[in-house]
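Two quick folds needed for the group meeting slides. Do the first one here.
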Amino acid sequence: MGTGKPWWRHWGLRVAGALLAAAAVAVGVLLRQAEPLMRAGIISAVENRFHARVELDGFSVSLMRGLEARGTGLRIWPPAEVAGVTVPPGQGEPLVRLEEFDFRAPLEYRPGMPIHLSVVELKGLTVHLPPRSHFEHGAQMGPPGSRLKQAMPAMVRFELDTLECTGAELVVETSKPGKLPQEFAIDHARVTHIAEGGAMGFEAELTNPRPLGTVRTTGSFGPWETADPGESPLNGEYRLEDADLGSFKEIGGRLNSTGNYAGTLRDLVVDGEAETKDFRLTHFGNALPLKTRFHAQVDGTNGDTLLEPVEATLGQSHFWARGQIVRVAEAAAAGEKPKFGHDITMAVDVDRARIEDFLRLAGRTDTVLLTGDLKTKAKLHIPPGKAPMHERLSLEGRFALDRARFASAKVQGRIAELSLRGQGRPDDLKTTDAGAILSALNGRFALGGGVLSLPELQYTVPGATVQLQGSYALEGGALKFDGSARMDATVSKMVGGWKGFLLKPADRYFRKEGAGTLIRIHIDGTRDEPRFGIDFGRVKSTIEVKP
């Protein structure tokens, strides 16, 4: 006892050290026993949940701050693998890949009772859903009476409240030739109400690829369909905020949309509303507010969308559209990642609209050719491609334009002159308000390559009806029309005064088919500088009317 310390202190230190050593050994033994038991319990729980083969590369447990566990390299295989069916080439991807998961729990264990986990954190999750044909193939090729392997009961069971997931990706494959899979980047997801055989609740935030924006959604998923996970029920609500339409070719604006959806991972029905306050065709630049309400069927395997219907308001114009948006692969150079575009076909019914809304959208300035009430029914087609959209777009149908007034005072003045002379009232030209003379147009049209073709156009003002055919270029506004004009008045009354008196002998040359005057007419020039020509060929003279 030369140290001068009491003998009991030496023995106390030795006992404490021995106890710590024993505790360390006990903890080590407990960990060696707990890790395989918990690993088996996790694999068993996942196998029972998904009815599938499960692989787990790494698993470790710490008891320093309660029960802490970390797993790496978790893989869940599609059910067809479990049944012993040979997977077709190219479809050998795991259904689920998970880089890492972590959880904590109180350090307590009651025999026969599950370990309660409040939250399990997931990182690097990829869900790769094979096409429907993969599961149909498995069902046909599986041995008669085969069933998915049932996992063995585990000594350690778990009870889970919530999954918190960051950095996830969902890939939905399709078996349709020429179609690319759909890929969704999920920034964050929270899954609740996790129970065997039931539906799970979820909250998620994901990046919508096109148009590029953030989607926030809540809803429920399940119960899990073992035979084909892609047929598992899915429903919820969504909000797409400030999406950039610039991710599509040739259109721009910021889109906001809300709605709800129901169906399965592969087939969803979506009802929603969308608003773009600054919708525009970027080649032209003018912006108009666009609001829509839609009912859509979405093929989750490739993004194909059937719209039945869309109700839209563009500026002051209201219309309906029905059709489909098909996602198609575009030609790519060797070694490049396949690119995709959209092939759009629509039947459009414009029931109440203003022509100036559409002309302004397809123009570079606020100046439009004319204003008026528009009704039209047309078929729209926009194929994918590198050319500007206004060159790829094709639109054909029939239209009726009432209460039309030309925006140019010069043009409207000539329309007023046509009307008054057609009525035999040339003396009223100086006293009549040209803006009060309204026109009506109807006919058949086709828009393609940036040119509006009008093979049948009837233009009517009081006192005159004009039949025309021709074209109008959206870029530059070039006009080229030919046709005939039917006037109620005779030539002499159209001219009036002493000149009209001299033209009385010519009346009989132009009075035909029930019209006081029937003459040829042509229009050329541009939208800003049009030229109107009336041809009196039978009397060898031409009257050129310039703005």
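Then this one, please, same format:
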Amino acid sequence: MSDDFLSTPTKFRSLSGASRILEQLLLGSLTVLGSLWALGIHHSLPWAFFNQQYLGLFLALGLASIFVAVKARAKETGDHVPWHDWFFAVAGVLVGLYVTVFYPTIAYRLGVLSPDRWILGGLAVLFVLEAARRVAGGTLAWIALACVLYAKFAYLFPGLLYAKGSSWARIASYLYLDSGGILGVPLDVAATVLVAFIFFGQALYAVGGDRFLIDLALVAMGRYRGGSAKVSIVSSALFGMVSGSAVANVAVNGAISIPMMKRAGYAPHMAAAIEAVASTGGQIMPPVMGAAAFLIAEFLNITYGQVALAAAIPACLYYLALFAQVDLEAAKHGLAGLPSEQVPKLRDVMRRGWIFLIPLFILVYALMIADWDAAKSGMAAVIAVFVVGALQKETRPTFQKILKSIQETGRTMLDIIAITALAGLVIGTLQLSAIAFKLSLLLVTISGGHAFLLLVLTALGCLFLGLPLPTTVVYIMLAVLAGPALVQVGVLPLAAHLFLFYFGMISLITPPDCLPVYVAAAIAKANFWKTGWTGMRLAIAAYVVPFVFAFHPALILVGTASDIVVAIVTASFGIILIAAGCARYLFRPLGWVKCGLLWVAGLLLLLPTWSGVWLIVDAVGLALGLAVVLWEWKGSSERDVRLAQADSSGP
């Protein structure tokens, strides 16, 4: 669930000998430490162990692992660890261990700016910036550095941007030791929750659960028209339920589905776009969503199960729009389903893989029904995966596979540790300079207090920030800056944060900087720009639905039962009409006028409830949509009759 970054082989060093053993020990230690904490083992210790002490230890292992395992430059050979990286690794351990060892004393004297604190704090800031540069690129690090510099030199700025500014010692100490800085909520979520869910995904791969998910998708959709694309959608959604990473989904699932779609007749750019959009949807698909979803729960002080439940209907609408367009594309180009010999039998698939449904059931039960905390639920699912995998000879994991899953979990965590630590750094500087409140006030002022205009401005901000930044960082920055403003103009807090999450996610498939699209286009050998624009069209629901649930929380299951049912039904029909208009096909090719009518009808059905007017609006949308559908069905039937008569009267 490393949100948005692809752990490519070139980014990591290929070590050997003692260096490789140490690297594996560090990566494995991250997973083991996170797993033990998620299971609550620390509660059995004979002494009190603060959460900040654990985060310090986790950060120490994370920084050391990054400086040992990740190259400083792309051109580096990567067959050894340079001496300066050994120094950084040791210093990173000292920075983290200082918090682990001395935090009980630090907690009672946080305001003291002693030399040891601000010196180590300065090193911590520099190490986090460098770690983020290595795993996520320079743009993210430069933005964070600009925030640090602003906290120091804010007194030089005019007007609304003016602030008193802080000393270097106070900035370094605050970012290092305060719970609003590096060791804040983002790193806390990564170290306590995300490690468990990443381990869950790796455990499934270790016992062959990924093969079961693909076979299940083949059984469900393989035989229908455009079957290869529908298999891609279903399998990507299933992968997303256990990984939540867009790029990982494209890399793993796309290697199989994209060639299959091309063989079935889909154009390369279409095949790549379908896979990119389907894989990106994994971040919003419960029960395991992207990292930002866990942060929503922390920011709003609600359970992750509530977040996942609220996200379920919008996620289904996202995939409904994609599925409808893929089906219509197949009809337009006459693409049949997969040959029967390529579709496995349901009986055989379930006989081999039914046991993998048990961990998924346990995860859903623990999160949604038993209301366990997310970390404990994730670890329960991990244990269940290894237990059920051991029941059958063909799925029984070897010691090497278990060890690899532990190490790969740690390797995947490196991106997340650097990004969440940097996100904490950014939040800390925004709070230290008090700019967050000022910008929130500015947004409300610019929008004139109008909720829709503020949502548009916020969406554009998400898409703009999403060009260089991953979803998690986009969400965190906008949650601090724009979240309070959205709530102030009347948007429900959960709807506001889901809105930010959705548009942060959409940036992954919005050109020009959209990594999942790059990866999918590379696999398909397709033109990037054609793939990107096609992906935006396929993901149309993600650009529309967030505006709907911001005003109409029934779509996130807030409201009466009748409101929720009506909202789901009308939104589903509306999304299908919009999808048909985007595909420009409904029984037969559509002209622009009829496409426009379908878009209008769909939007009318999606419009939120405004007193009693919504009945009239929905009725107009339904009547208009049905009129176009019936007109096209009649015209298509008459065309088929004429073609049949022409064939029968032929020579």
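Slide caption for protein two: Residues 559-634 form one domain.
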